[in-house]
Design brief:
Layout lengths: L1 H42 L1 E13 L2 E12 L2 H21 L7 E3 L3 E8 L5 E18 L2 H10 L9 E4 L3 E3 L3 H26 L4 E9 L3 E4 L10 E2 L5 E14 L1
Length: 250
């Protein structure tokens, strides 16, 4: 009986050992498969750049103009400048520019001194130069654009008038950026799908995404910069959004 019991005991030990060995092999296989999946997750991915473009028309304009007077008598120069300001405001009103869209800056005064024989300033005053600027900020883009082009008519009224080029803006740019980033991301996904399909694979979920700079250029321009552009010279603009995205490959 003792021999039978010893045999049974040895058999149990052998079976246990076999089970442990099998379990070890299976565990190693599972761990190996897991490691391979992790390596695949880490290494097998595709990175692409997607973009989206849209042509927009500016919905806000800022136009600045200025006029000046010079005289050895400061009071006379100021009185002449006051008359010029009235003419400018009357002109803008006649052209349909709303009063609330107009901002008048304070008068700027520069004292000009007489020069000596060597071309250096003396302490004797030659004249006073007074200038004043007017800014028009409006949503009536087309009207203000037309006025800015025609405003040199004021020169015919004996005004030392200067008109600056209008600046054009788009006030809904924030909302537009959100929409265009989504479009650029979708474009990146489509490109990744096409590239993966060409090699017999398919993409999985997006691993990462990085938004590039926005380029706001004149509609017909192809200019770009590393830090982005924000053109204010053109009424019609082209907005370009860029997204760099990485996708897992299945």
């Amino acid at each position: 009986m003792e021999n039978g019991g010893g045999f049974f005991k040895n058999t149990q030990i052998i079976i246990l050992g076999v089970c442990i060995a099998v379990a070890t092999i299976v565990s190693s296989f599972i761990l190996a498969q897991g490691s391979l999946k992790i390596m695949k997750f880490t290494r097998e991915m595709i990175t692409v750049t997607g973009s989206a473009q849209k042509i927009i028309r500016s919905d806000s304009i800022i136009w600045r103009c200025a006029f000046a007077r010079s005289s050895a008598d400061m009071t006379a120069a100021y009185q002449a400048l006051e008359k010029d300001l009235k003419k400018v405001l009357d002109y803008l009103a006649a052209k349909g520019i709303a009063k609330d869209d107009i901002t008048v800056a304070q008068v700027s005064i520069t004292t000009v001194y007489k020069k000596n024989d060597k071309g250096n300033d003396t302490n004797e005053i030659y004249e006073y130069r007074l200038s004043q600027s007017v800014e028009v900020k409006s949503a009536d883009v087309e009207r203000v654009t037309t006025v800015s082009r025609e405003s040199t008519e004021l020169i015919n009224q004996d005004i030392g008038f200067e008109s600056n080029a209008p600046e054009y803006y788009y006030t809904k740019l924030h909302e537009l950026k959100v929409d265009m980033v989504a479009q650029a991301t979708e474009n990146a996904k489509q490109r990744a799908q096409n590239m993966a399909k060409a090699t017999g694979n398919r993409i999985g979920f997006m691993r990462s995404a990085r938004m590039g700079v926005f380029q706001i250029t004149p509609a017909n321009s192809n200019d770009v910069t590393d830090y982005g552009m924000n053109d204010t010279s053109a009424l019609d603009k082209k907005v370009t959004a860029v997204v760099t995205a990485s996708f897992a490959i299945e």
